[in-house]
Amino acid sequence: MTPATDGLLRPSDGDALRAELRALAAVSNLPVIFGGAVHAGTLVLSEFVGTRTNAMRGLAVAPSSGLGGSAVATGKPRSVADYRSASTITHHYDGPVLGEGLRAVVAVPVVVKGEARAVIYVANRDSGVIGDRIADEMVQAGRRLAMELAIRDEVDRRLRLSLARESMASANAVVTEQLRDLHAELRGITQSVSDATARTRLRGVTDKLARLVSGVAAPDDAVTLAPRELDVLAQVALGCTNQEAAQRLSVGAETVKSYLRSAMTKLGAHNRHEAVVRARRLGLLP
Question: Which 3 state secondary structure label does DSSP give 111?
Answer without folding.
Answer: strand
